[in-house]
Amino acid sequence: MSKGVVYLVGAGPGDAKLITVKGLECIQKSDTIIYDRLVNIRLLGFAPAKAEIIYVGKSPDRHTLGQSEINQLLVDKALRGKTVTRLKGGDPFVFGRGGEEAEVLSEAGIAFEIVPGVTSAIAAAAYAGIPVTHRDFTSTLAIITGNEDPLKEDSNIDWAKISTGAGTLVFLMGMANLPQITKQLMDNGRSPETPAALVRWGTRPQQRTLVGTLADISRKAASEGFKNPAIIIVGEVVSLREKLNWFEKKPLFGKRILVTRSREQASVLSEALEVLGAEPLEFPAISVAEPEDYRPLDLAIKDLTKYKWVIFTSVNGVEQFFRRLHYNNRDIRDLYGAKLCAIGPKTREALEKYGLIVDYVPNEFRAEEILKELQGKVAAGDKILLPRADIARKVLPEALTGMGALVDEVTVYCTLTGAGQTGPILDMLKTGEINVITFTSSSTVRNFVDMLGAADISSLLSGVTVACIGPVTAATAGELGVRVDLVAEEYTIEGLVSAILKYFNK
Ligand code: SAH
């Protein structure tokens, strides 16, 4: 068997998008991913579905593998011919023990590559509005471990030299030793007035920054309970934050927003919220499953050419329909006779991906409005196919029937209640750690209320902003005793996001 290869990859500081293109390519082609604690787990989603994913992170309360065991694991996997990505937070060679791992691989004769990453030492500072160098302030930067007890006799750090030897000092892993670090710096000649900052969970939506001076930062940190993972920045450049703080000024920064859509669909909403600085928390209240009985759909597919209209009401509906079409060994050529209607711009885009031109997209995305617009387009006796979810509302098919059309409503997918753990969500709701809940359909509200099983839902949600995608969803929420704070004007994900934005910036 040929030997594998190991990529020592820097995952970047936390914001998943700060991984390098090369790093991402390594993840995408690996058989095995071995990752650390500070790696954004979203990156694991880019691994091939059959990749083996191994967590080896250390955390104060949980010790998984020691360093020599990790080294051995890398060697073993590579000897078995695997392509391995060893994924580390930040840069692999900046206090990441990447050097030691590379040495072991080299000694074992295993091919390896280093893919540098964006280190938190620079990126967390940047996201706090602090440039680590600046012509007006300093031309030197030192990155130092704060892991070592600075007061121990045989310290590897020459405090007498480092304290004033570089303009900007960035300490990693230093929170536990913060009082000793600041004391050492001052004892060794650094002015107590020197600006200092702490940045926790830098580049992530949870980022927190604390600013002070060398003299008081440690006391401030203690009183705020400021903990790891954080970097400590000491130097005049910290004062630039007043002008350059940008990330924490994003309009939804600091807001934790619950996304209740299905796992497959959540990411579009999550990403849009994250761009605005919010922290999306995915808690799918619905999941999409195959219909129990495919026969009605298969029959419709067999007779596809006889339909005058096919009306798609959701992206899921489109995707599941075409999956089954191909399963039946058919393709879009069978749709030549039908006009296509898509409810909503996303549904239209989903159809366009199959090379189809959509004949009609209603201006409003509610069944009642669509019907008004369809009058005159649909004639009595027209055969209409409506591929939908099992629980879809009956308004549309009933009204179309009322117009004399012959409607075949077939189930292309089922919606089930989500299977997530409700405990942590309940806790966060009680402690006010969730700011907004988003509902993108009636079923997300219904299932969410069911899943929580709270006796008094209205008091549980009293401190939370409830955001609904449209009036139908809002009405369902109302019926279930959920107070609604905002409803999107345009019933799309973009509409929902802009309504949330408007609500918080009014
Ligand atoms: N190789 C990593 C550093 C690993 S040491 C890098 O280049 O970033 C772990 C330390 O990095 C933590 O104790 C903390 O000081 C720092 N750190 C990592 N990610 C961080 C983040 N998102 N925000 C603040 N500090 C972070």
Describe this structure in words.
- The protein has 506 residues and is an alpha/beta fold.
- It folds into four domains: 5-118, Tetrapyrrole methylase, N-terminal domain (Cobalt-precorrin-4 Transmethylase, domain 1); 122-248, Methyltransferase, Cobalt-precorrin-4 Transmethylase, Domain 2, CATH 3.30.950; 256-285 and 418-505, Rossmann fold (3-Layer(aba) Sandwich), CATH 3.40.50.10090; 290-416, Rossmann fold (3-Layer(aba) Sandwich).
- It contains 19 helices and 22 strands.
- Strands 3-2-6-1-7 form a five-stranded parallel beta sheet, with helices on both faces. The chain has a five-stranded mixed beta sheet with strand order 8-9-12-10-11, with helices on both faces.
- Strand 16, helix 11 (315-327) and strand 17 (339-342) form a beta-alpha-beta unit.
- The radius of gyration is 28 Å and the shape is elongated.
- It starts with a strand and ends with a helix.
- S-adenosyl-L-homocysteine (SAH) is lined by residues 13-14, 38, 88-91, 94-96, 119-121, 124, 172-173, 199-204, 228-231.
Instruction: Supply the CATH superfamily name of the largest domain.
Output: Tetrapyrrole methylase, C-terminal domain
Which structural class do you get from the secondary structure elements? alpha/beta
What is the distance, rounded to the nearest whole angstrom, between the alpha carbons of the first and last residues?
A: 64 Å
CATH topology of the largest domain: Methyltransferase, Cobalt-precorrin-4 Transmethylase, Domain 2
**CATH class of the largest domain, please?**
Alpha Beta
Total helical segments: 19
What's the architecture of the largest domain in CATH terms?
2-Layer Sandwich
Report the count of strand segments. 22
Low-pLDDT stretches: none
Strand order of the largest sheet: 3-2-6-1-7
